[in-house]
Amino acid sequence: MDRVKVTKLSGFPEYLPAERIVEQHFLDVIRETFELHGFTSLETRAVEPVDRLLGKGGDADKEIYGVTRLADAPGERSSREPELGLHFDLTVPFARFVLENAGRLAFPYRRYQIQKVWRGERPQEGRYREFTQADIDVVDVGELAPHFEAEMPLVVAEVFRRLPIGRMTIQVNNRKIPEGFYRGIGIEDVAGTLRIVDKLDKIGPEKVKALLVEAGRTEEQADQCLALAGIRTEDLSFVDRVRALGVEHPVLDEGLDALAAVIRAGLDTAPGALVADLRIARGLDYYTGTVYETQLEGHESWGSFCSGGRYDALASDGKTTYPGVGISIGVSRLLGLLLSKGLVTASRSTPAAVLVAVVEEESRGESAAVAAALRARGIPCEVAPSAAKFGKQIRYADRRGIPFVWFPGSGDVEHQVKDIRSGEQVDADPAAWTPKTEDLTPLVAAAAPSP
Amino acid sequence: MDRVKVTKLSGFPEYLPAERIVEQHFLDVIRETFELHGFTSLETRAVEPVDRLLGKGGDADKEIYGVTRLADAPGERSSREPELGLHFDLTVPFARFVLENAGRLAFPYRRYQIQKVWRGERPQEGRYREFTQADIDVVDVGELAPHFEAEMPLVVAEVFRRLPIGRMTIQVNNRKIPEGFYRGIGIEDVAGTLRIVDKLDKIGPEKVKALLVEAGRTEEQADQCLALAGIRTEDLSFVDRVRALGVEHPVLDEGLDALAAVIRAGLDTAPGALVADLRIARGLDYYTGTVYETQLEGHESWGSFCSGGRYDALASDGKTTYPGVGISIGVSRLLGLLLSKGLVTASRSTPAAVLVAVVEEESRGESAAVAAALRARGIPCEVAPSAAKFGKQIRYADRRGIPFVWFPGSGDVEHQVKDIRSGEQVDADPAAWTPKTEDLTPLVAAAAPSP
Questions:
Q1: Which of residues 357-376 of B touch A (CB under 8 A)?
Q2: How remote is the C-alpha of B382 from its chain's centroid?
Q3: Residue A234 burial (CB < 10 Å; 0-12/13-18/19+)?
Q4: So where are chain B's domains?
Q5: Least CB–CB distance from A130: residue in B16, B45, B63
Q6: CATH superfamily placement of domain B9-148+321-346
Q7: Tens digit of pLDDT for each residue in B325-384?
Q8: Where does the chain cross the membrane (chains A, B) (predicted)?
Q9: Interchain contact, B350 vs A2, CB within 8 Å
Q10: Is the complex ipTM higher than 0.90?
Q11: Considering only the top CATH level, what class is A354-435?
Q12: What residues of B are in contact with residue A9 (Cβ under 8 Å)?
């Protein structure tokens, strides 16, 4: 039934079985950690009204996929229904869900959301058009306690510690620091200045300075902006370093206090996980307090794998405002890079720990009974697809990385199980034998990079 | 930033936290059972070329959602890229994935796939436009061993046994039985006859007989067709009952043997789970052997929650043919009905088992340390959002169904933990206290129907 030409679609990654096991492990660790921290799961529909997707400030550059029933001829679409598009992040649908269900949710509402999102990018190397994000947010009614801004990066720091990856550094800033600082040195155009300073990583300090002067800042202002952006400390010393620049402004004080609280919480709970980095700007248009970015140590050029921040108005229905703070892990981008560089591997390409051999097709039922006994004790297994020679059945297991092959006994013949890696073969009871914990499920581990 | 009107979209269900916990439990049980049986996970992209979606036989009635970049003006779409649509099932993408990756997969390939699918139905009560399916399939190259046709329904029978639902009955038939039987009584138009007999549940035997005669069958042929469709047995006696109808045909013999093998495997492994039901027809156009449907006992009018069958050509590239057998659980439809009837509930609306109270905002760090100690031992918890009066903190836990509130000690004051259901409060050590297993994670259980 399926003779249509097979077409690879650029930007829509799909994983083979062993890679998918790596992805599942990552998603399981993320979910488990979020749940340990009391976040509740949310899954929103894939589509939102296009109005809502376009309505979000500063996202004109996000490419939206529109969704229409093929059966509708152009112009025939029911006018009672809004035009729909696929969501391009998880924040827009979350905000809509909060407004729609505010009366039925308990606030502060802690939710996590792990889902695919879509961006209608033009096909291009390394650009995903479908990818998985894993977000946590806390949203409250009217006011949001500042301690949540310290909590978010510590939850993801725990996620990263539990994953088989290198050291992740979460860089934290507070938007009020540059804002107060800029105002303190007489800069009115805070957003425009930030936008230029944000190019620091890409174009370097000289060009940033030139652009600032071109945009009307004085030489002295530009130097001060660069001095501020250059401050990065693992402890609270960033406060003194900012003070040493001699700038005074109440908004700057607020920002320094808030960032110090976040860094202090990090030093208490996860020393080394957070860094105060005053060049981090992010999403100028809606973040209003703490902002986060995250880099994998030794792979800074890969950019940020996890970012977010605080918004004073995550959502608003005109009467009530819902401030929030959230952080989002770019799961697909992280996995795509780790897998393509061979930095993480799975020990096998199937959940099965055991292949139960079949002696002859007539005794398949006996092999199935062994498998049922193993499964009843939580041991994943499958029964060999055919009563081929044992050598062939062992090769079937070997090709998939299944570590054990079970040879069913009968009458006087004992059951035996063979570890096909070592060749060791021992008598075994289907009601009692258990593999070592590390062989029960596929092991996902960091690997040396491929040459 | 979010003042656009909030719009409910008919057919796109979304769950509140407690309902989502029920859904997660169902999905976890399904995944765990599939993995115990050695199925590997596959996730395919959400979109396929429209050609491929339309190409599948017999699916002209499936409504497809087309996907286009909003940024592309009509007609501007890059001609190098195929027109895309959202998948409406998991079989079409699976078949395409097999063809695309045949050289990198090990056959027989056992995969499970739990994903959203979309159908562009017109908005209508009870019709989902986005819903979750959970499929298993086994596909092989050239030939597929018949024992897989017995395995599929036994795997889903185990899923249903592990779920907090009533008894599911999996009805099994083999397409060769009606085919051989019809040919044996001189009927040439097998497909046309099946299509009419398939209406039995909806319009009853008299009307089916009238339609058959109208379509050119004799009275005697129509009676024989109805006699065959009326046979339903939990054991192997269906074979004798078919034989008693006195019809002979080699294809009928093949079908009876194959169905007997499936029912026999069911009697061995899961007595009562399978029923031979000779009226089951399903997907006339591609199923070629065993077919399955599943009903919840006492709720037969809700229709089938799980169906599938064998195809001789799941996929083909013109040179190689890939026969397969699969079965698909309609997770959203099942959950939607159970939740709307109040037949299943979660014990709480958050993963958190413990709320760690905060004595005063300055000691939040001490509460966070208690939470970290509990989490290190796998106990999900959250820290109270504010240092409100303890009564208010307890109400916060109560509203979410969190069973325990922890009161941090300090100095001479012991830590204490309160079970807010019983009111019992005891001294406790953050490094040692553990809740009962049934309180550790939310309990999802069958409930009496709401009045």
A1: 361, 364-365, 368-369, 372, 375
A2: 32
A3: middle
A4: 9-148+321-346, 354-446
A5: B45
A6: Bira Bifunctional Protein; Domain 2 (3.30.930.10)
A7: 999 999 999 999 999 999 999 999 999 999 999 999 999 999 999 999 999 999 999 999
A8: none
A9: no
A10: yes
A11: alpha beta
A12: 45, 47, 49, 81-82, 84
